[in-house]
Amino acid sequence: MAVFTPLSDAQVAAFLEDFDVGTLVALQGVAGGTENSTFFVTTDRRELVLTLFEQGEHEELPFFVELLDYLDEHRLPVPGTIHDRNGVALHSLAGKPALLFPRLPGRHPEAPNLTQCRILGDTLGRLHAVSQHFPGHRPNPRDLHWLKALHHKVLAYLSPDDQSMMKNEVDEYEIAFSDQPELPQGALHGDLFRDNTLFEGDRLGGIIDFYNGCTGDLLFDVAIVINDWATGDDGRLDMERHDAILEAYLTRRPLTDAERTLWPIMLRMTALRYWLSRLLVVYVDPPAHDLTPHDPERFRTILRARLDHGTLPIPRPDSKVSS
Fold it and tell me: Which of 61, 94, 101, 127 is most buried, by CB atoms within 10 Å?
C-alpha cells in the first residue's frame, strides 16, 4: 500500500470542511505509486482523490496546480484541482502539502488497442497545442543536462558493453542537439505512460499524475509515449500502434523539420532517461519508503532495440491539421 502518511476519517472530514464538496462518507488508501500518499474520498455529493506530497520540491507545487487548472480550463481531460471556498487549492494536512482532485473515471489500459492509441495521440496533440501558450515555467528535470551530469554515477554497476553504450549515447545526443535549432517548446506531462491514463472502454476518462510536468521540448513527451505505448516486450516498435498515435497527434500539431530529424535520437534519449533514472533508484538513491523499484532492464532493452533496429517512418498527415 503506497500510503506513507495514514489519515483518519476525522482528519479528512475536518479537512473537507474548507471545501464545498459535501461531507465525508468513506476514505480508502490507494495502492500503487512510489512517491506520494493517495486516498479515494467519497462524500455525500461526489468522488474525490486526495494526495499528500511526501517527497520532491514542495515549492514547485504551485506550478503543477497552475498547469492542471490551465489545461482543465481548456477542456483537456485532466483533474483540475479543487479550490476551497477562498479560492485556494494547495493546503496542508498531517504536516504535508495536500491537494484535492475530482476522481476521474476509468482504468489503466494494460494492452491499449488502436482506438485507444488514436485517442491518446489526438489528446496529446491537443494538449501540446494548448500548452505552448501556458505562461508557467519549470525546466525539464530529466533532460540532456541531467543525463550528462548523472550517468557517471551508475557506470560502475554496468557491464563494459553497457558502459560504452551509455557514454556513447550521451555524447551523440550532445552533438545532435547542438547542431539543430531550438525545438518547439511548451508544457509537458513528462511521464505519460499507460498507467497515467484512465479509459472506460475506448473513452479516455483522463490523464493523471502530472508531477513530472515541466516545460521543454514537446517532442520529449511524444517520444516517452511511443516508447511505452507502441513498444513490444522485445523493445521493438509496433507499427500499428506507432502510426495510430502519431497520425492522430500530427493532425493536431505537425512536427517541424528539426523535430523529424531528431526523432530517432529523441526516442533513444527518452529510453536512456528511464534506464538511468531506474538504475539510480536501484544502486545510488533508493526511495525513502520500502517499495520495489521499477526494473531498469526494460528501458535498456528499448534503447538497444532502437540502436539495433532503428525507428519507423513518421506518418505525414500534416496537411490535415485540425482547427
Answer: 127
In a shared domain, residues 60 and 186: no
Specify whether 179 is located in the same domain as 96: no
Does a structural domain hold residue 4?
Answer: no
Question: pTM of the full predicted structure?
Answer: 0.93
- 99-156 confidence digits (pLDDT tens): 999 999 999 999 999 999 999 999 999 999 999 999 999 999 999 999 999 999 999 9
- DSSP track, 238-300: -HHHHHHHHHHHHHHSPPPHHHHHHHHHHHHHHHHHHHHHHHIIIII---SSS-PPPPTHHHH
Contact 250, 125 (CB under 8 A): yes
Taking only the tens place, the pLDDT of each residue in 278-317 is 999 999 987 666 566 789 999 999 999 999 999 999 998 6
Q: Tell me: do 268 and 125 sit in the same domain.
A: yes
